[in-house]
Amino acid sequence: MASTTSQPAASTNLPTSEPLLSIRNVAKSFGRNIVLRDISLQVAEGEFLTILGESGSGKTTLLRIVAGFETPSSGEILMGGERLDHLPPYRRRVNTVFQHYALFPHLSVAENVGYGLKITGLPKPEVTTRVEQALDMVKMTAFAACKPSKISGGQQQRIALARALVNRPRLLLLDEPLSALDANLRRQMQVELKSLQREVGISFVFVTHDQEEAMVMSDRIALLRRGELEQVASPREIYRRPATAYTAQFIGHTNLLRGQVKDGIATCHSLSWRTGLRDGPGLFSLRPESIRLASGAGGSANVRLRGRILRQAFQGATELLQVECAGGLMLSIRTASRENLQGEVDLEFSAADAVPVRESGERT
Amino acid sequence: MFSRAYRTAITLPPLLWVILFLLVPYALLFGYSFWSLSPSETIIHSWTLDNYHQLFRVDVYLETLFRSMWIAARVTLLSLMLGYPLAYYLSFYAGKSKDLLYQLVIIPLWVSYLVRAYAWKTILGSDGVLNTLLQYVHLTSHPLEFLLYSPFAVVLTLTHIYTPFTFLPIYASLEHIPRNLVEASHDLGASPFQTFWRVIFPLSIPGVLAGATFAFVLSLGDFLAPLLLGGPSGIMISNIVVSLFGAAYNWPLGAAISFCMLALVLGLLFLSESLEKKWSFR
């Protein structure tokens, strides 16, 4: 535990610019194993923030620190300007939706949802009303008397959500809550979860390893890699302007072009384009959909190239092509779906779409 | 899956074993319980319910049966009071020393029952360890007689012997409680105390029932501890059965009492099993 430093006076009327949750320089290690290093992250009131990362990136540990199940090795966490990390989990106005739901098997659905309210000593009639409202919100009223083992995974998911939200927490933490569901149900729940979050206006911190899920639901994504934050930005920003090669590859597909920059011109194999980078080696991310099949004469801003199609993968609305260009440069290209693309093709991309990125692991 | 011959080959030996050494003796015993003894102590092979009547007519049998149940009830309660906290601590808080402590609880089970019962005799006897110590520190001037050859000694010894039997099922049921349920309870605002009574204890009830059944049934039928440590006031029902089959040479009455005990125990097992089912949720 960090020492109690002088804290700012807690005010009940927080300015809207004040973040709801501030994670400040939090680090965590288990023995010699360093899981989180120097994480600083803020969550705004009403925000849907996703912590995205591969397994072992430390995302669940970070969530557990906020929930209070783990204590940070160093750093501090504030909620509404007050220290949160000294409080035991049962004193935090934070609720969690667990990965495997963690519904109490000996209690009915309604008793599960009412658990937190009953603990706080709310009068029975009010518990009943609020449980009914919460069950209504997740459309599970009909199952109130069932035991959790008698309902499906998706239904358990809704109950776990209702059980957490019924307490009106200031912050809801969700630990890969959709990972146990099959693909269709998962997509449906993503939409429901997002609209539910807008409806209740509570801040959500959502942990997942699924980048598509993160893109669909989040206001902002915090990408975690080996215990460090790689990039924190909105889904659009993080997709269009990835800061590092890792981000570019983890979020969506990309082509990484490694080249040399000299006098504002980047050169990679036979290609060259204008860039704002300084002289030296340069790394660029070029999304497959930024490369088009060239039609007639391209504009001067476009980089043109010629390549031979090696593979064509049909993906429904689009095709993913593997193209070999001059000098052995391999590119992935996404085009609208069409049959039988073969042989040599002319391609082009706009120089602005080749986004300079940092090498991964490299820190500035 | 398997051929008929193969299935027969693997099921036949245990089946024969059970029939020859369990069912047949029970059937014989059941038959005996309806026969009677002539004045010249030969067995008369004519059917009568007299033995069962006698069990309820002669005070000493019923008294001993009730005393046995009372002893068994105290043993059950005490071994739960010892076994539960131990299992709870081991399962939730022991951390790295868990395996070691578990072994320490189990090891006494490897020691002969007789040795453990005799050990208590040397502790509780009038010139035993405890009395010597009490006199040495001048807490008492005479050996305390109630320590040995009393129901107290029997309860103490049986509690010592059967606590591991209550500990084990309780420990197993606690180990099966997913830890995220405990976290979920804390997350929803419940203190550790509230979490114990609302989540952990209800989910461990099947283990408690199994443990209580072990302790009660095993100590109800025990005859060595009362024989060695009980004295005249600590006699239990099994001692009577033993003497009826032995010195008294009244097999029919012994068989009748045995069968009443068997019915009682089977009833208890049935009851505890249906309660356990009611309280298990997986």
Describe the structure.
The complex is a heterodimer of chains A (364) and B (282). In chain A, 23% of the residues lie in helices and 34% in strands. By secondary structure, chain A is α+β, with helices and mostly antiparallel strands. Chain A folds into two domains: 225 residues, 3-Layer(aba) Sandwich (Rossmann fold), CATH 3.40.50.300; 111 residues, Beta Barrel (OB fold (Dihydrolipoamide Acetyltransferase, E2P)), CATH 2.40.50.100. In chain A, strands 6-7-8-3-9-10 form a six-stranded mixed β-sheet, sandwiched between helices. In chain A, strands 13-12-11-14-20 form a five-stranded antiparallel β-sheet. Chain A is elongated. With 282 residues, chain B is mainly α. Chain B contains twelve helices and two strands. The mean pLDDT of chain B is 90. Classes of the chains: A alpha+beta (364), B mainly alpha (282). At the A-B interface, strand 6 and helix 2 of A face helix 8 and helix 9 of B.
Provide the helix percentage of chain A: 10-25%
How confident overall, as mean pLDDT of chain B?
A: 90
Unreliable spans of chain B are: none
Portion in beta strands of chain A = 25-35%
CATH homology group of chain B: MetI-like
Structural class of chain A: alpha+beta
Question: What is the topology, as strand order, of the major beta sheet of chain B?
Answer: 1-2
The CATH architecture designation of chain B is Orthogonal Bundle
Shape of chain A: elongated
CATH class value of the largest domain in chain A: Alpha Beta
Order of helices and strands of chain B: HEEHHHHHHHHHHH
Looking at the structure, the CATH topology of chain B is MetI-like fold
Q: What is the CA-CA span between the terminal residues of chain B?
A: 29 Å
Per the CATH scheme, the topology name of the largest domain in chain A is Rossmann fold
CATH architecture of the largest domain in chain A: 3-Layer(aba) Sandwich
The share of residues in extended strands of chain B comes to: under 5%
- Strands of the biggest beta sheet of chain A: in what spatial order? 6-7-8-3-9-10
Which parts of chain A are unreliable, with pLDDT below 50 for 5 consecutive residues or more?
1-15
What's the pLDDT, averaged over the residues of chain A?
Answer: 88
